[in-house]
Design brief:
The complex is a heterodimer. Chain A is an all-alpha fold. Chain A has one domain (about 1-390): Sodium/glucose cotransporter (Up-down Bundle). Chain A is built from 22 helices and no strands. Chain A has helices spanning about 1-25, 35-40, 45-55, 60-70, 75-105, 110-115, 120-150, 160-210, 210-220, 240-250, 255-260, 270-280, 285-300, 310-315, 320-355, 365-385, 390-405, 405-415, 420-440, 450-470, 475-480, 490-495. In chain A, helix 3 (about 45-55) packs across helix 12 (about 270-280) and helix 4 packs across helix 15 (about 320-355). The longest helix of chain A has about 50 residues, at about 160-210. Chain A starts with a helix and ends with a helix. Chain B is an all-alpha fold. In chain B, helix 1 (about 5-20) packs antiparallel against helix 3. Mean pLDDT of chain B is about 85; it is low at about 65-75. The chains are: A mainly alpha, B mainly alpha.
Chain lengths: ~500, ~80
């Protein structure tokens, strides 16, 4: 029990320091919609880098990746494969998205579709899909958070109260400081995480096997198939790897909250530099995997692979250290869930509720509604996390399939003059239908192919064909032309231009 | 929006070949390098190599568009 008190005290201290940083980040800024959602487009390179990196490394990557290394083996390599590729994609598209955001005062992903395609309906569809896909992501963070506290308290504190306390803190600093608060909490979180991963990745294999190399030698002896695809799974082979890495790389910045993070940057060049440096941050990932591999040799019979990292820490180190790791774990859940809450709420208020029910809403009213939605989403996600537990991973995969369907609309929207609203609309509907059908009927992977990539292929084809069959409207043509858009005050942009 | 130049897209495609499409060429344990299985070593080394290619793509884009894409830059 004494151990639990030590671990928990340290864990709570870290979580509270994180939350306080979040609250203080507001300084004396007036929190209007523009500040709250995109930090007034004023975040410098380092903060944007930390914000984006902070969002990438979620508690799910921390626990889930060591979990996959433990239970599945080589298939987890997909995460090392797609990470740098997502950065390549980011390099090509984020600066253009930022530029469009700057020009038209965009705050959300749905804004982008709405303005680019001159269609409130398309904006609303994208917002709806975005919010629905964010919910399982949010839920996973909560579940992971519960797991961390449960292990760190040696089972003394059940997950439900832990989740409620942590999540109230999150909702608090989201409401007060918006995205700027999240960015500042990321600073603490990233430092802790890098230090924790760096230490564990080298120390744990060293303590049990004398180093990383000997650990791998032991693993190759004990489980010869574990370290090449398909690892310890029946069907996650090379085809699965290629299609999944491709889909994840393309889909990554289609998550509404990653997409919107691009708007917070001060310049497009900051985003280019970020894209160059981001792969280096992923170096923390292989270190986490070392811990999962070591766990497989040391405690081969865990019921839940997601527990492997925490179990190893608990087994190997004193309680205070478990508290530090637990604190890092709790922050890796709090940061992404904060940004997901904020993004989901803004999408709902600005791109779903306003155009459908109250077109005359002002920005202040949208901001107020969004904050109410933060509370509703918080309670909703809490209820979901408390009363449902199974197969969160499959829900998240469904989310990836969903958001990846935005890719053709975004890329063609940025670079093609010929793509049309009906084209993108029918493409998204086709892709979502096929993807959801395949995922829900157990066809993912389908003959080794990632279902999302199959859906995306159909989506792309339909988008192109329907676009060629329909006419580009005047509004669409105007938004594709570079420069000079803002000044002439096309009716489309008016609704959004209040902010800049 | 300005399209990325063909050159930069080609340079950007190289990591895709290395990390994704060529998996059957490097997905093996031997030879071990620095104690790591070969596939693991390959993936980790591309965490460091990919930034070089992104940097090169950036250079090519700059050259293709003059200094135009730098407008609004913080520098």
């Amino acid at each position: 029990m004494n151990q639990a008190v030590v671990a928990l005290a340290i864990l709570s201290a870290i979580a509270i320091v994180g939350a306080v940083i979040g609250f203080l980040a507001r300084f004396h800024r007036k929190m209007d919609l523009e500040q709250w959602t995109v930090a007034g487009r004023g975040l410098g390179g380092v903060l944007v880098w930390l914000l984006m990196a902070g969002e990438i490394f979620t508690v799910y990557t921390f626990l889930g990746c060591s979990g996959w290394a433990y239970s599945k083996g080589a298939p987890i390599y997909y995460i090392l494969g797609y990470g740098p590729l997502a950065c390549v994609v980011a390099f090509f598209i984020l600066p253009s998205i930022w530029e469009a955001g700057q020009k038209h005062g965009l705050q959300t992903q749905a804004d982008f579709f709405k303005v680019r395609y001159g269609s409130n309906k398309l904006g609303a569809l994208v917002a709806l899909i975005g919010v629905v896909c964010l919910i399982p992501y949010l839920q996973i963070q909560l579940a992971g958070l519960g797991l961390v506290v449960e292990v760190a308290s040696f089972g003394a504190i059940p997950r439900t109260p832990a989740i409620i306390v942590a999540f109230t803190l999150v909702a608090g600093f989201v409401l007060v400081s918006g995205v700027r608060g999240v960015a500042w909490v990321s600073v603490l979180k990233d430092i802790l995480l890098i230090v924790a991963a760096g230490f564990l990745g080298f120390a744990v294999p060293r303590i049990y096997f004398g180093g990383i190399g000997p650990m791998f030698t032991a693993l190759i002896h004990a489980r010869p198939d574990h370290l090449v695809l398909p690892g310890s799974t029946p069907n996650l082979g090379h085809t699965w790897y290629i299609t999944t890495v491709l889909l994840m790389a393309l889909a990554f910045y289609m998550w509404p909250h990653y997409f919107a993070a691009a708007f917070t940057a001060r310049s497009g060049d900051d985003l280019r530099r970020n894209a160059m440096l981001m792969p280096l941050y992923i170096v923390a990932m292989p270190l986490v995997l070392f811990v999962g591999f070591t766990a497989l040799l040391v405690t081969p019979h865990l019921g839940n692979g997601d527990l492997s990292l925490l179990t190893m820490v608990q087994k190997t180190f004193p309680a205070w250290f478990l508290g530090v790791i637990g604190g890092a774990g709790v922050l890796t859940a709090m940061v992404p869930s904060a940004i997901q809450l904020l993004t989901g709420a803004t999408l709902y208020a600005k791109n779903l509720y306003k155009p459908i029910f109250a077109p005359s809403m002002t920005d202040e009213q949208v901001a107020r509604l969004a904050k109410v939605i933060v509370l509703i989403l918080t309670v909703g996600a809490l209820l979901l996390a408390i009363f449902t537990s199974p197969s969160l991973v499959s829900l998240l995969l469904l989310g990836v399939i969903g958001v990846s369907q935005f890719f053709p609309g975004v890329v063609l929207g940025l670079y093609s003059k010929r793509v049309t609203t009906p084209g993108v609309f029918s493409g998204i509907v086709t892709g979502i239908s096929i993807g959801v059908f395949m995922a829900l009927t157990g066809r993912d992977p389908y003959h080794g192919w990632n279902a999302g990539l199959i859906a995306l292929t159909f989506n792309f084809t339909v988008t192109v064909i329907v676009s060629l069959l329909t006419k580009v409207s005047v509004a669409e043509r105007e938004t594709t032309l570079p420069a000079h858009l803002r000044a002439d005050g096309t009716t489309l942009n008016k609704a959004l231009s209040a902010t800049e | 929006m300005e399209r990325p130049s063909l050159g930069s897209l080609l340079v950007g495609a190289i990591p895709f070949v290395a990390l994704c499409f060529s998996v059957s060429l490097w997905d093996r344990i031997e030879p071990r390098i620095l104690g790591l299985p070969f596939n693991f070593f390959w993936l980790v080394s591309w965490l460091f190599i990919t930034p070089v290619f992104i940097w090169a793509a950036n250079r090519l884009d700059r050259r293709a568009s003059g200094s135009d894409s730098a407008k609004g830059a913080g520098q």
